[in-house]
Design brief:
74% of the residues lie in helices and 0% in strands. It is mainly α and 533 residues long. It has three domains: 204 residues, no CATH class; 160 residues, no CATH class; 132 residues, no CATH class. It starts with 9 loop residues before the first helix and ends in a 17-residue tail after the last helix.
């Protein structure tokens, strides 16, 4: 099987991807879909071997459940004709109950399988700990499963497909191969984005003809993603590993630097992978949903999570938050709370319950560990506090005649949000919740610039040369993001230049990556960080 970081290895970039593009381009239109489908399953098999059976099972089962739901809906429509109002209500209720049963079974199978493979060891370990505290000699066997690559991503796609069929947003697909294409499109295998059926299924099956413009635009994204990954993320990896693995040896300043650099590394790696994925899709004429929208220009934690891992946040919103907040019990709670607490605090009660469930799931989705749960609860707390106090902050700003839209105040908000995000990422990356707490305490109580003065900070995997490259590269990211934030499309601007200038820019970026990219025996390549979530 291939190594986890294959997407950024030459074997993929100069081997698999070009071969698929060439083969896709030379075969007839009807055969292009087969090229994509077979290539997707080949890449998935290369990553996971025999664990491909989980993807096959998920695809076959959602196909069956979708047709089952469609059959119930069609039967309902047939039975409704010629009935009285009361009879129609009875038919609709029976049909709704049948569909609920199908949805419940489908979700239990897919989420249940994910829970067993990914979380059973975590639950068993914690139950054993609790039993030990209670003095019991009994203990559960801790299971060990090999986790299929990308299972969290395609499981969420499978659930969204079933629920959207139930909601009649899409029709159940009678074509198993088209559904298989949607579930397995190879650029998405490692880290998403999490697509909806309506996003990509039809376009994938149509297999658009290769276009020169799409090829160049896709290549732009791929090269920019490689720049983020090789020049920034991989260069920072040695320092970050040293700090987080041996945090007890370092003072608060080094830990603070490590936390800030990890946040930068995570963004560079994950958004860089998304650039590669979306760029690869664009080459084939497939528009994949964006997963990042310049998150470090956010003025609040809530806004940050609308710009970071966008497809995951949208999934939680559509399939957990809204169904819970619009459920009968919470709607009744909202109505009662509104009467007693008013229009601001009333709806916050039920909304906070749904928000808590979202962030508990968000934390667990990232991994079966307490520091991931804490990570979710950390963001839940700040978003909840923002929801509660924002009206009061607005009044206070108005009273003090502070323009909250002014640049200085927005810069303050961005810096504040970035600091809070970095603290959250400390717990996300830490080797356990206890380690995260110790590191956070050292950042506050043992902060000293001594390690900067004596040069210790430059002996942990990065030197002054590395730091200069990281600062320049981060400056490039900031400048590009700033232009995009102000509505300037750099990609369109490059495409409008003459061919000489255009390719001069391409070669300059490639040369920068070749010269300043972090690779070789002294660097540890970063495996895709979200591939195991």
């Amino acid at each position: 099987m291939l190594t986890l970081n294959t997407f950024f290895r030459l074997f993929f970039l100069l081997g698999i991807l070009p071969c698929v593009i060439v083969l896709y381009g030379i075969v007839p239109q009807k055969a292009r879909r087969w090229v994509l489908l077979l290539s997707s399953y080949f890449v998935f098999w290369a990553f996971s071997g025999k664990l491909i059976v989980y993807l096959l099972f998920s695809t076959l089962s959602v196909h069956h459940f979708g047709l089952w739901l469609s059959g119930i809906q069609m039967e309902e429509q047939q039975l409704l004709s010629g009935l009285s109002k009361d009879e129609k209500k009875s038919v609709k209720k029976r049909s709704k109950n049948k569909q609920y049963a199908v949805i419940f079974l489908a979700v239990v199978i897919h989420i249940g399988l994910l829970l067993i493979l990914k979380y059973s060891a975590f639950f068993a370990t914690n139950i054993n700990t609790l039993l030990g505290v209670m003095g019991s000699d009994y203990s559960l066997e801790v299971p060990k499963y090999i986790l299929p690559i990308g299972i969290s991503f395609y499981t969420l796609q499978a659930v969204s497909y079933i629920v959207d069929v139930y909601r009649k947003k899409i029709q159940a697909d009678t074509n198993l191969l088209r559904l298989a294409m949607f579930m397995s499109f190879f650029p998405q295998i490692l880290e998403g984005p999490i697509c909806r059926y309506s996003d990509t299924a039809d376009t994938l099956w149509q297999a658009p003809k290769l276009k020169y413009e799409n090829f160049l635009l896709g290549l732009q994204r791929i090269v920019f993603g490689i720049f983020k990954k090789l020049v920034i993320a991989d260069r920072l990896n040695l320092f970050i590993q040293n700090v987080f693995n041996d945090y007890r040896q370092y003072d608060g300043f080094i830990i603070t630097v490590g936390v800030a650099l990890y946040t930068l590394q995570l963004y560079a790696e994950f958004s860089g992978t998304m650039d590669l994925v979306i760029g690869s899709g664009q080459i084939f004429g497939i528009t994949l949903p964006e997963n990042f929208k310049r998150p470090f220009f956010s003025s609040s934690i809530s806004e940050f999570w609308k710009r970071w891992h966008i497809t995951l946040g949208a999934w939680f919103k559509d399939y957990i938050f809204y169904p819970l907040s619009m459920s009968g019990p919470l709607k009744k709670l909202t109505a009662k709370s509104r009467k007693k607490l008013g229009n601001h605090f009333g709806p916050l009660i039920s909304g906070s319950i749904a928000l808590f469930c979202v962030w508990l799931c968000n934390g667990l989705w990232h991994g079966p560990a307490w520091h991931y749960i804490f990570f979710g609860m950390y963001h839940f707390a700040f978003i909840l506090l923002g929801n509660i106090f924002d009206p009061y902050f607005s009044r206070l700003a108005a009273f003090c005649r502070i323009n909250r839209r002014a640049l200085p105040y927005r810069c303050f908000q961005i810096v504040r949000t970035t600091v809070l995000v970095c603290i959250g990422e400390l717990f996300f990356r830490s080797n356990g919740l206890k380690a995260g707490m110790i590191m956070f305490k050292k950042m506050i109580t043992e902060f000293s610039l001594k390690s900067l003065a004596d040069g210790t900070v430059f002996k942990l995997g990065i030197d002054a040369y590395d730091l200069i490259i990281v600062l320049i590269s981060t400056g490039i990211l900031f400048f590009v993001g700033l232009l995009q934030e102000n509505g300037v499309s750099i990609r369109d601007g490059i495409m409008k230049k003459n061919i000489v200038a255009r390719f001069a820019i391409y070669y300059a970026v490639i040369a920068f990556i070749v010269v300043f990219g972090a690779y070789g025996i002294n660097y540890l390549p970063v495996d895709p960080m979200y591939a195991n979530f």
